[in-house]
Structure formats: C-alpha cells, structure tokens
C-alpha cells in the first residue's frame, strides 16, 4: 500500500464580494447551503475541533474543523470517518478578495488514496468541489 499524497485543487472566480462568500464558507455547520446533497446531522459550530456529521443517503461522513482564519479567509477541516477510498484527508476552503465585488474561491485537499484508482478518486473530489462552488455562485448571484 502506498502512502503517496494526492492533491486536488479547484479555483474559480465568483462575482460577489469576498466578505459575503466568506460569510457562507466559514460556517462549518452551514456546508449544506452549498452542498445540498448532504444533510447535517446533529450539532456543529465554528469551534476548532468541532465535528460535523453529514449524511448522503445511507453514507455518513464525519469531519473535524482544524482551523478557521477570518483574516486570511481560510477554513481547514479533516475527514475523520467516511465511506470513501481515501485516508489522511485535509481540506481547505479559501476566499480571496479581487476587489470590484469579485473574489476567488479555492477548494483544495491532500489525502492518500486507498483501494481505488487515483484518477477516479481525484475526479470524484473535483466534481464535489465544482458542485459546491457552482452553488456558491448561485447563492451570491
């Protein structure tokens, strides 16, 4: 088994102020606002170490808030438990102000692929990130 780290990175421009997009993204319990295919189960908050539990059908995902930097507009989280072929996943959401009511939204992660072709896992993660950013664009249109 390989412990090779895989990195996925998706960045898109959004025609909205960085403060508005960050307000949505920074809310650890509010991820279902831009990933509506998931359901938040139980409580989560913006305290470092907080665990959010998400459901998609019968699948349960548990994620831990690792850091939240309002000045840099960066949130980092780790997957604690998930029915996906990866381990040691750490994700980052970052919003960068471009001025003129525009910003970039970057969603990235590093992880180790386990028991599946790397290209398939990367494609799955990229698809999720693009879906989330698509919803952020609609929310802030």
The whole-number mean of residue pLDDT values reads 96
Q: Would you give the CATH topology?
A: Alpha-D-Glucose-1,6-Bisphosphate, Chain A, domain 4
Spatial arrangement of strands, main beta sheet: 1-7-6-5-4-3-2
**Would you state the CATH class?**
Alpha Beta
- Named at the architecture level, the CATH assignment is 2-Layer Sandwich
Oligomeric state, counting identical vs distinct chains = single chain
List the secondary-structure elements in sequence, H or E: EHEEEEEEH
**Cα-atom radius of gyration:** 15 Å
The global form is globular
Give the number of helices: 2
Number of domains: 1
CATH superfamily: START domain
Q: Please give the number of β-strands.
A: 7
Catalogue the unreliable spans: none
Distance between the termini: 45 Å
Helical fraction equals: 10-25%
Percentage of residues in DSSP E strands: over 45%
- The secondary-structure class comes to alpha+beta
Largest sheet: 7 strands, antiparallel
How would you portray this structure in words?
This protein is of the alpha+beta class. It has one domain (5-139): Alpha-D-Glucose-1,6-Bisphosphate, Chain A, domain 4. 21% of the residues lie in helices and 45% in strands. It has two helices and seven strands; from the N terminus they run βαββββββα. It has a seven-stranded antiparallel beta sheet. β4 and β5 form a beta hairpin. The mean pLDDT is 96. This is Polyketide cyclase. InterPro entries: Polyketide_cyclase/dehydratase, START-like_dom_sf. It holds the Pfam family Polyketide_cyc2.
Explain briefly what this protein structure is.
This protein is 21% helix and 45% strand. It has 141 residues and is α+β, with helices and mostly antiparallel strands.
